[in-house]
Design brief:
7-stranded mixed beta sheet; alpha/beta; about 25% strand; about 475 residues; about 40% helix; 6-stranded mixed beta sheet
Amino acid sequence: MSEIKRNFIGGDWVEAEEASENRNPANPDDLIGFYARGGAGDIAAAVDAARAAQSGWGNASPQRRADVLRRAGDMLLARNDEIGRLLAREEGKTLAEAKGEALRAAQLFHFFSGEAVRNPGEKLNAIREGVEVDVMREPLGVVGLITPWNFPIAIPAWKAAPALAAGNAVVMKPAELTPGCAHLLAEVLEQAGCPPGVFNLVMGKGSEIGNALVEHPDVAAISFTGSERVGRGIAQGCARTMKKVQLEMGGKNPMVVLADADLDLAVNACLNGAFFSTGQRCTASSRLIVEAEVHDAFVERLEKAMAALVIGDPLDAATQIGPVVSESQLAGNLDYVRIAGEEGCAVIGGERLDRPGSFQAPALFLGATNAMRSSREEIFGPCASVIRVADFDEALAVANDTPFGLSSGICTASLKHATAFRRGSNAGMVMVNLPTAGVDYHVPFGGRGASSLGGREQGRIAMDFYTSVKTSYIFAG
């Protein structure tokens, strides 16, 4: 067995009793490495280390925190090619997408480096004479971060950077499928001068160490990105221990195509939103809601564009679609392809490809209705339902007929309809003539309903979740 990548606790690289393999989903013979599989005792040790370190970090000059985050961003930027290749190997994203995600992680640390020194408060006059009021934000203490496999460097960055900028100490539990990028982030933060105990990494099974993190009494808050099912359990656990909680969960995102849309633009937006990143994005366009007048022409163009996509090794520059992240995820995707056919859809594509690795052809479910399971449940793979509607009003009603509310989109040349959709969509993010997936780091990210709970992520609003408001009254005499 090669060297085991260890957990990072209290500034030390700590061994675990067990380890798990990290393999390339495009090439099962490519062993990326062995990574420690921690337990509840490791979480307890990490929380103790974080609690001991937090006061010094939170009371330090904000410039000190800013400097550490800026150096971390610089290091991530300098190692972009290395991180991109690692990400492509362990998650299956194309190399171009993986390098773009690595760049985003660097941008996030640079952005929140600035936010570390911009911690605004308020000075108010009280309604009582001689009394002044100060309103300020303080760190929460120890925060637990539970991150998913589909963005294994960007999401750890967009959680850790604001948490650290606000003066908290962090215990991070990355997805067991993709520990490599989070392990590299821990290395970068150590080298950037993050004090021992301020950032801790414990890798392993969510059912073991995730629960231990949620239930620990000294953890003040949990930020989680993952499935709705797991998120609901975390919310219940946080309620029992009175923790602040932030959840980013699933989506069943609609993309509306109206009759007046530029069909080439609409096809490109739907192709990107539904199938890039192998559809493994919570913001993916999984319901394509098309006005009847252009439905057949749109489907014909989209089928041709889908058939032309290059599926292959993510490290090959020609590849546009990589593998599904794991065999178990692929099995779930194929089950939904079967379900869509049984529900009455004409299924185009969706089959497992006859090659080594977890590869699936993109799938369209034609003749879908919004009542079908395949149109209501998040698949998290390269599958999209195509739903025919009569007009804009029906399109908006179908788009909103979902328990989720993360992202939505519309392709139209009508300012009237674009405006009405932006106002009427029950989603946290709305895209006009753009894919439903793809967001900037300096603006809020999050949804409504079963998609999100708690404060928004990214942008300066992310600091709200990682701080507590304190109001002070001062009698000046």
